[in-house]
Amino acid sequence: INAEYGSSGINAEYGLSFAQTCDPICSMPSRFSKNRKKRGHVSAGNGRVGKHRKHPGGRGNAGGQHHHRINFDKYHPGYFGKVGMRYFHLNKNKYYCPTLNLDRLWTLVSEQTRLHYSQKKDVAPVIDVTKAGYFKVLGKGHLPRQPVIVKAKFFSKTAEQKIKKVGGVCVLSA
Question: In the chain, which ranges are E strands?
């Protein structure tokens, strides 16, 4: 068989050429294609007067500012034009500063840790916010009346006040 078809493998066993196995047109039998229904009807559902030409309105998004303007203005407002000021070579990492509110602060350590340190008066737990991927601590919410050492790159004014109010410390880290 291999000598007869000039190749090896499973295709050669069935006597199929490479083109027959890879052709996407052959993947679906023609009896299922939609235009079988239209056989025998001269214009195949596209009308006699305005004939079925290739791309009468242009290909793709052609004519968005010309003959398709109504569609673009109605369904895609703001598609054309510019907005804002250009910033050459914008480095996003300069402005990267994920934030965490005080009401979520204790979720970074387990409940066991909080209860363990609530009984002790001489030591306080250290919560390193930057290890959890946050840079700045903001002051929304309440803290339990328990001293805590919070390490972060930035603190808002209210966050600092609330942490100190419960006897905690704000430690700035680089």
Answer: 99-101, 126-128, 136-138, 149-152, 154-155, 169-172
